[in-house]
């Protein structure tokens, strides 16, 4: 039987280090679609690469610090070559389309996906599931809306019937590849842990296209998984990055070993945890273990994960439903005090990195409106409110860390 195929947009860290390998393990040939011609050329020359599991020696890999998994059955196309994209969508062996390009890039790939779906309809192609693996809530619904804008009504109707659009939670720390040598540009280093949870009800389950894949979990309660991951792993990660930046640490593992930083991060995750337990009915004890496991993941020295990567785009991370304010607002619903989460929010307002446009924009807001005014604009906590005052007070305290 001819091999089933997947198209994955974004041959970056998560694409090559997480989603691509799981697709290959599940028997798919993966066609990576990217704008980076160097990576695409490499994929089409070598058709294989290695994933280096950089465990910290406490979990699966007790003796060695690294083990490798070979990934074959891969090729590439440029998203700028529309004919190639359409040809792949027309291929009846293609059954799943995934993305990991970054939230702002979804609108850029939407026209190509729309053209691909038009082509698939015109060749009477079968059912397809689309799963956007981006760190955001409702990422695939967002992609669906963006794609639908480029479809005429008959194509829209066909897509409603033939295309499943499933949101997901995607969790594995994959920093930019480092130290594998110039002759291995496709290799990527990852942590051992991973979790990929997909909204079962949104999938089109049809014949060969049925999911889950190896390593993928289906759920009818995606919100619980997304909140747990975003308000724990991503929340703690971001706070570690912002506090680490203030103390001049380069990487996350260095920052989390600092007792002052660890106390705040742990406190913030406990506050967020009380709210998550209330909202989603997680067992308190199990959630505490999840927090411990998360902190242990931050300690992994082999990942050498830069605080600037984890802290990137602070305004996005200060979004109302995102990793910092999401748990603050959730805790507020239950009257849970959140001093450490608000310290984390304050630290984000002190993140001053010149080559990060969102950091520059945030600093400009602070300059123009003062801290309280900027906090009000970004967090929607009015000047004079308890939350606004706590963030401003924490900001002034944390500012001294930077000066020290
Ligand atoms: N790296 C990580 O540990 C994790 C990342 N994520 C999410 O995965 C997504 C991707 O993150 P990374 O893989 O780290 O980023 P990355 O920067 O390594 O990869 C993004 C890829 O998208 C490609 N790209 C950019 N514009 C494109 C376009 N118009 N068409 C096609 N490809 C395009 C880039 O060339 C790059 O290869 C983000 O949403 C991130 O939040 C989620 C969980 C873990
Ligand atoms: O990719 P983002 O949303 O900028 O945030 C970085 C975060 O994403 C991850 O790369 C993976 O979830 C985390 O390591 C980190 O918390």
From TrEMBL:
<comment type="similarity">
    <text>Belongs to the mannitol dehydrogenase family.</text>
</comment>
<dbReference type="InterPro" id="IPR000669">
    <property type="entry name" value="Mannitol_DH"/>
</dbReference>
<keyword id="KW-0560">Oxidoreductase</keyword>
<dbReference type="InterPro" id="IPR013131">
    <property type="entry name" value="Mannitol_DH_N"/>
</dbReference>
<feature type="domain" description="Mannitol dehydrogenase N-terminal">
    <location>
        <begin position="5"/>
        <end position="205"/>
    </location>
</feature>
<dbReference type="InterPro" id="IPR013118">
    <property type="entry name" value="Mannitol_DH_C"/>
</dbReference>
<dbReference type="Pfam" id="PF08125">
    <property type="entry name" value="Mannitol_dh_C"/>
</dbReference>
<dbReference type="InterPro" id="IPR036291">
    <property type="entry name" value="NAD(P)-bd_dom_sf"/>
</dbReference>
<comment type="subunit">
    <text>Monomer.</text>
</comment>
<dbReference type="GO" id="GO:0005829">
    <property type="term" value="C:cytosol"/>
</dbReference>
<dbReference type="Pfam" id="PF01232">
    <property type="entry name" value="Mannitol_dh"/>
</dbReference>
<dbReference type="GO" id="GO:0019592">
    <property type="term" value="P:mannitol catabolic process"/>
</dbReference>
<dbReference type="GO" id="GO:0008926">
    <property type="term" value="F:mannitol-1-phosphate 5-dehydrogenase activity"/>
</dbReference>
<dbReference type="InterPro" id="IPR008927">
    <property type="entry name" value="6-PGluconate_DH-like_C_sf"/>
</dbReference>
<dbReference type="InterPro" id="IPR023028">
    <property type="entry name" value="Mannitol_1_phos_5_DH"/>
</dbReference>
<protein>
    <recommendedName>
        <fullName>Mannitol-1-phosphate 5-dehydrogenase</fullName>
        <ecNumber>1.1.1.17</ecNumber>
    </recommendedName>
</protein>
<keyword id="KW-0520">NAD</keyword>
<dbReference type="InterPro" id="IPR013328">
    <property type="entry name" value="6PGD_dom2"/>
</dbReference>
<feature type="domain" description="Mannitol dehydrogenase C-terminal">
    <location>
        <begin position="221"/>
        <end position="388"/>
    </location>
</feature>
